[in-house]
């Protein structure tokens, strides 16, 4: 049997995510062990493809990296070859179409296939590269867990673990001081991190983009807890949580969101509103980049290994234009196009939302 | 709408497991919040039911326990009411049928339903209680992840995390000293812990009950690694790993297993064999009870919450004779009978076994 | 031998700190085991003493709490009995002298001695209580490690561990994206947390209150790292880090500090300055309350146990007016007065500062 | 000012220990940054010196390793150049004096000074090398914390942290099942790990080499706990814990210790004795190599950095024949001879032993 790909490129695009190195390792080892193929690592995502920064990955280089956060290949956000920022004169940036360079480098390096690990943006570029004749295989990456084609993505379990540990920590202070603690977590459009992290941390209030909230139920929950047996409240709020449209605070938030240098996010805003609305001392903590970094959990290491091996199989066997995905515990290839259509958001009647309500969690909608 | 159960008992049977408290909490809160029901906690499994040791669980008692290992209710192995050990005279134990006492206590405490959280043994007793007229709801618990009725059980992810962290630790010593490190993990009949923990820890050799191994491939892997670029090897072996039938070592192992005071398990035996067979310094570590204890991971907290809420719904709504289960990400009730038929073992062609082989892991069979 | 104290009160004042429960446990067990004394737990610091909220602590209540963060007694910041906030009418707060109530409750509850666990403020009140005739024993508590009477306080090692873990996490993202990451840590007047946490995390720049910094060396370090072999930089900045007096930014920071609702702290400010000054993408993370919460480290558990036992000995044996302290690894009582004189700050020529400079860390002063 | 050493060798000897990489990093960076010196890394301890396996350490190679366990240089136990094992014919090993090779390699590589990081054995060899004319600087390394010249060594805090986390885990199982749990920790001659780990984990019984124990007090403690409020007991036992001389069990233990393949250590023996002596179910766990591996704690990273920087200063400035040490929080050089005289053991009246007794811990001696 002959295989389609003897030389396979691999790159990581977009924000970093625990598990990227696990994918790179599995792609490389599988390609080498099962197919005798050569794997070329491309630096800093599509940026490295345009600029020709790439190198052969040795067995040694990918050994021992499964448990390391980040990506040994580096990543970049400026990588769209069709819209590439170029400094045309001192300080003046112009966006140009440098896709010809990316394609030329694919040819120069003799890449029979290219594995692109990334989110939305990366998959869109992958589609376009495919149309331009490059044999692409996608590996979905989104810490928010909102890629539609797959049930779950690596990095998500690690992010949720960071959230849960943070809530555990904040709860001891909250309980000692009878305070309200607000923790702002990632999730601009999909609330999976807030939902899972909040349920695991035993948050009393969880605010998601998918379930618009009002202040009254939130204040009510705070009052109920502070006055009764417990005297502290934990609020877990997704970046993208929102009040119903038409509310003035939505407008204020929208304004802030467009300001790249905004100093206080939704966490600070919710904390202020609760303190003013209930009279109880309230503090906000923003987890931010802590959610992206560090060693991946077991689940993420296992998923990254499964994804990487599957992607190498697709690449080596000539199954192109697909993204590997996990569905009902099985890893399989799906068309890239399917993967990039929309977002997988939390259904308001999701069984975990229901379970959380049953144990007393308030989602701010009633 | 009237509900079937106003008073719901809950007990935990068998070995402990991270997440038990999460289930107790979710059962109690859901029963109280959604149905206004009363929950009676039974101490030390069916032992407490026989002996009448039980108490009403307050909201406060189940608050803040989601992240705590162990079980606030206690557990016991001597709990089968139909075969109950009784000290009939100084030091002489006799097994008696005390099921009438268990049934009498169900009546005395007015239990409309009884939620039993446990493994195999507990589910068998639950079936028998059901036949005797008690309204039972089961929640599966097995750290080995081998209950057939459900895709996954709580405690498993935590156990695997302990294994992975241990391998991470042992790998640094192995690599500094160019040694072989053998780590023995739980799994007498099913190798899920060894498989997942080994893949996540990047073990070079994984030995499972489901894939009988020979020494040659294991020695070969050790030689390959020690002589080439890396100079250390990590071997992850399940308690129940075994050589092909007929092998003398199987006989030796079988003999040891029947000896309750045996001093060295399979880990020590594999370490000795590797040291003698390859000449490389080898050390064994037995994780034992470390795998059962401590704070549950996020995945286990979430699953425990989902299971507990679902069990309370079944109990309160009169859906008896069922065990809650997770299938393809959905939590639903299945007949208890189905749950106790056999064991869910690792299929030798499981996709994770295949992925592990692709990244170079040896399972000792070839 | 007869002891001075049969009934010993204990309270925790000020911000919470990992290890408080360890002290409460050791005070209680030592008083009970070694002296047969009774220990009365006072709720929410001096607030509970004024309001008479206290209860006898049982052996059971203090069992198993050594590893738990927070304080089972609760704490409060409004506790000075001589300046006690009282709501005199709807919403109008007036500060009154309610010290007579605190003293009356000491008498009513028959407290022969009172162990006060807290920082600066608590020790000042303890001094005043001592003058008013109450037999006081102090236990120093300050997460910033700046109490002058003792070499080290519990909670500090835990806080530093949180900082180091956060830097480990942020470093993976920084390195993947070639970014500058600024992490703001506690330390308004003393930079011990930033120093220890920064050294342990391998921070490239550490900014302390004790060593005023200028922008040039900081920008220089960033340039050096981004242009050479590494392409990321970690900056660890204490809340109280500052530019030389006279600098405009000092004025701006001073203004912000007085604003209780200020949205961006020094971390955000430093990040903005670096991004503007060097052109490299920079992100800030504020650890805030994460540093106070959660399970204490081994060092903090051991120190808390030692402090608590020592305080109980002092209380029971009639050694009053002292605070327990750790000096050169020995735990001993020192006069409270000594403990509250000034602050223990980082000497700019501290050997760890020197070691950090040797491994290449920039403190922004040269 | 001219410095004594332009080329500095560094090696790690003996068992591995978290923090070794931190020392290597600090030696290298300090030598490079402060003295413009070159650092030569020697592989696998004195073995690499004899065999000439060494390489220049680059800045890049020592970057980012502060938080990694193990040693990038490798270690070895066969390293004494004066008693070097040589395979003289197939399988026949002979011990030879190859010190001339080690000295020749010092000369060939132009090493002006040699930093040896290791324990007892390494310091003895260092002394001998010094006598042979090599400029030696020692860095003490012993996970047991028993080097006499220094108050504390790196690796110890990490080991104790592993012990404490293990006890935390085991306690949940012990408490759920009303069991006795025995945990065997390192410490053949000095009981620091058992003492600190036991106190931090809240162990009920701690058995040290320095305090011979009898069975009666141990059984008594178990009975007291099982019968009263708590129903579980945690026993922390050092490898070298022992019964009074003359006891038969001592003889049995001594016999086992001389058997290199002994299957059960002191932990298993203590567990059996307790189960037989009290009738309570008892389980043993042996932590073994888990205590040596993994990421160093903050305290160990800071200490390693301080030791490494100090050793580089000594080497570069020509202060030879010394070992760096920590005394009362200050890092300073002491004569190597002083460091290797005897062992720093736990004084039976150590203040932490006293504090542990006060909180109810049994040391088995009364």
UniProtKB/TrEMBL annotation, chains A, B, C, D:
Q: Where does ATP bind?
A: 15, 78-79, 119-122
> Listed GO cellular component terms?
6-phosphofructokinase complex
Q: Where in the cell is it found?
A: Cytoplasm
**Active site: residue positions:** 144 (proton acceptor)
Which superkingdom, per the lineage?
A: Bacteria
Q: Where does substrate bind?
A: 142-144, 179, 186-188, 239, 283, 289-292
- Record pathway: Carbohydrate degradation; glycolysis; D-glyceraldehyde 3-phosphate and glycerone phosphate from D-glucose: step 3/4
* GO terms of molecular function: 6-phosphofructokinase activity; AMP binding; ATP binding; diphosphate-fructose-6-phosphate 1-phosphotransferase activity; fructose-6-phosphate binding; identical protein binding; metal ion binding; monosaccharide binding
Task: List cofactor names only.
Answer: Mg(2+)
| Residues that, per the record, bind Mg(2+) | 120
Kind of enzyme, top EC level?
A: transferase
- Phosphofructokinase domain location is 7-314
- Residues the UniProt record annotates as site (Important for substrate specificity): 121
How does this polypeptide assemble, per the annotation? Homodimer or homotetramer.
Family that this chain belongs to: Belongs to the phosphofructokinase type A (PFKA) family. Mixed-substrate PFK group III subfamily.
Q: What is this protein called?
A: ATP-dependent 6-phosphofructokinase
